[in-house]
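User: Earlier you gave me the apo prediction for this protein. Now I'd like the version with NAP bound, so I can compare the two side by side. Same sequence as before, with the ligand SMILES added.
Assistant: Got it. Here's the input I'm using:
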Amino acid sequence: MNKVVLVTGANSGIGLALCERLLSQDTEGLQLCLACRNMCRAQAARSALLTSHPTAQVALLQLDTSSISSVISAAQEVKLRYNRLDYLYLNAGIMPNPKFDVQAFLKGIFSRNIITMFATGKGILTQKDSVTSDDLQEIFATNIFGHFLLIRELEPILCQAGKTSQLIWTSSSNAHRSAFNLEDIQHQRGTQPYSSSKYASDLLSLALNTHFNKQGLYSSVICPGFVMTNLTHGILPCFPAFLWTLLMPVFWLIRIFTNTFTLTPYNGAEALFWLFKQKPQSLDPQAKYHSLTSGLGKNYTQPRKMDVDLETSEALYDKLLKLESEVRKYLKEKQKSTRASSHFRT
Ligand SMILES: NC(=O)c1ccc[n+]([C@@H]2O[C@H](COP(=O)([O-])OP(=O)(O)OC[C@H]3O[C@@H](n4cnc5c(N)ncnc54)[C@H](OP(=O)(O)O)[C@@H]3O)[C@@H](O)[C@H]2O)c1
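And here is the structure of the complex with NAP:
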């Protein structure tokens, strides 16, 4: 039986590296679906994968996780194409307008927190968020809510009697409880919407396990480590790509002290790939699975306890369900008014 695997944000970075790794281990038994917002970039990724794996089954799906209508129509398309979904990788993510806090960085360098600062980016990264056309905070909508809605829409093909399916979130070590506020889940009022959204994914994964394990659906989170991708290049947008390359020896040096500097998308995808091969029942719902690379360049996956609790995860889950029902109401009204205006035009 073919396994159906859907990866969001599959056209670049860690998502694309995961697809390459999955096909390298098994070309025949996989139906891979690349869910991307930009179809030109998606097509280029598909062509690259087919160049190295000409017989692979690689399909494309248009999905913009920041747009409610896009998520709903993508989910409908998936349900038409596939009877079931074995793996759903919730990987698409953004960190727009990041600001590197030089002062906090210099302070961190001369403090006891230097390793934590390098390993997690804690305290040195802020972002400026914007609002989507659905009136949601963009980072929250892209990284969390769009994925939540996608899972809800795909429930019938994820939860099937006698079968298991896996949800696998690309979270981050930058997910900090201190950046998250249950009274402001979209992070409208803070300066760390990325960290908040990643912490929310950790909480949500725990809640999904509570609600869906009995139906054969399991959720896990990973951290890819610090990887050089479009997302990280955006941290210093004035920094040309070759300067990042020049910095590589420094990063290799740092890797001796913190194995979270995985650096390449291939290494960063280690935990995503490792989870593909695990029995989901054997995984710890309170652990984050870290892609790590040793100073000698050896890749491995290590679970580390997350700073999450059941009570907060349930509270977030309830809030997401409430937001989902508001969003569905808003969609219905929008459809009604579009129908009415087209009726008046005829
Ligand atoms: N790089 C790191 O060091 C690091 C560390 C921790 C966690 N992460 C997480 O790893 C994941 C992958 O990021 P990456 O580092 O591989 O960066 P990347 O190369 O920029 O990949 C991000 C992917 O997400 C897609 N995406 C963004 N917004 C989307 C939307 N609204 N709808 C659908 N797809 C969308 C991007 O598509 P486009 O090409 O169209 O933009 C791209 O394919 C993210 O969730 C990120 O937060 C990365």
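For your comparison, keep in mind: The chain has one domain: 3-95+126-232+260-345.
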